[in-house]
Structures are given as C-alpha cells and as structure tokens.
Amino acid sequence: MTLKMVVPKGKLFNKVEDLLSEIGLTLVGDSRNYRPTLYGCDIEVKLLKSQNIPEMVALGQHDIGFAGMDWIIEQEADVEVLMDLGFNPVRLVSCIPEEWDWDEVKQRNIIVASEYKKIANDYLTRLGVPFKLLRAYGATEVFPPEDADMIIDNTSTGSTIRANRLKIVDTVIESSTQFIANKEILKNPEKKKQIDDLLLLMRGVMNGRKRVLLEMNCNKDNVQKVVDLLPAMRSPTVSELYNSDGFAIKAAIERKLIKDLLPQLIAAGATDILETPIRKAL
C-alpha cells in the first residue's frame, strides 16, 4: 500500500533528503521539482511550502510529512506528532525598537505585526495588553517603528532582528521540525506498520548522529578506572586481548562528551583509542 509523504520545500528539503538517505531511501529530484521520486520503498512524495504541510496532513491529503511545530500550532492542525527531529530550531519572539522601554510599551494600545496570527493573538491576550494585530506577509522586521510597535517573528540567531535595530523582549514559543502523521491513517494496520518501520529507522539515524563509537585498549590494572569513566548506552563491552594481559573496551558515547572524556581516558590508562561515527543506533 502506497504511503503519501509531503516534504517541505526550501532549506528544510536538504535535511530531510539527508535523513532519508541515511535510512536507505534515495530521493531523486530537488526543491524545484514538486514530485520527486523516492526509491527503495512504496512511498509517493510531494513537495509543499512548510506552512501548508500541517493542514494538508490533518485533512488526509497526505499520510505523513515534516513540518515546524510553529506551523502546527498556528494552524491548529490535528495531527499526530511522531518525532521531534530538531531540524531548524527557532524561537518565536516578540520584538520592539531597541531604544524603546518594554514596560512603557505594555502600558499603551500597541500595533503588532506577525505572520503568526493565532500564536500572536494568544500570546498578546495572555500578556493582557490592548493590541491591534496586523497580518504580515514576509519581511515582518521592517514594520517598526513607523507601521507597528511590535513584531512577533521567528529567529534562530537574532541577527536579522539586530540588523533592523530591534530587540527581543520575550520568547513566545520554541519550534523545530516534527515528523507528523494523519491520525486516521494510523488506524490502518498496514499503513501504520509502514510508518512504524520508517519511524524506527529515523530514530536509529537520529540516535546515531548523537553518538560515536569509542574503542580502546588498557592493561588489567587500569580496566576498572577506564570503564568507570564511560557513560555508555547500557554498559561498555570489555574483552580480553589475544595473547596479552590487556583488555579491549568498546562503548557508544554521546558526541558532545568526547572533548572532555578523551583526556580523562588517557590519564586513566587507555591507549590505542579509536573514534568511529555511528550510522544508526537502535
């Protein structure tokens, strides 16, 4: 049974393409081709703008897809979030001109520009300030100070906000790319099995990206000290070296820990250390 997958155009396309490739699926086409071919499975692919994906999946036009949490919330899309992939992490922030005082701004009736009408309305209502909301269609940061007192927009580094002489006064929500599914499709046993298998492989790839395989040797006097340093997924593998009184130790370690861990291992007596990338960790 053919699964219908929707993939975002633009900067997210390459990240999704890389993920599918590491699973073992080859996506042939680029972000200008709206109907690329996915080899290695029974999945039909279509490209859409990120903003359209949550609603299309919720309506059942597509079975599965990739979308930012910001657009899922904005569209109130009734979809099943299967996995947070962490791609393109952004914050939705409220910003005012850099020389303005935030406490003073909150005391008056403010004009706010945003592409995110629902999210902005909910946030401003919680804030308890009188406001007029303008729907922006791109380039939101150019509105203040002449056309708006505040903007609510997404940012990853804040550089565009600073370049337009604005300052962040609050974080509204945080967002990243989610792997989502239509809820009704998950009631279909055959399609659910296909989706579960795909999800298993995705999890394996994402876990693998976070870890490396460390292999090392040490003598029997140091083996316990070395093992005690290793935060392995379960416990490290330790085996005797052939024709020697030493041991070989192997463990999957979080990549972010390696920089500080290697000097400690060497000080504890580890030698011949090898670090290898992991393609999947299940």
UniProtKB/TrEMBL annotation:
Q: Name one Pfam family in it.
A: HisG
Q: Name one GO biological process term.
A: L-histidine biosynthetic process
Predominant subcellular localization, coarse grouping: cytoplasm
- Which protein is depicted? ATP phosphoribosyltransferase
**Its catalytic activity?**
1-(5-phospho-beta-D-ribosyl)-ATP + diphosphate = 5-phospho-alpha-D-ribose 1-diphosphate + ATP
Q: What is the lineage of its organism?
A: Bacteria, Pseudomonadati, Pseudomonadota, Gammaproteobacteria, Kangiellales
GO CC terms on record?
cytoplasm
- Residues of the ATP phosphoribosyltransferase catalytic domain: 49-202
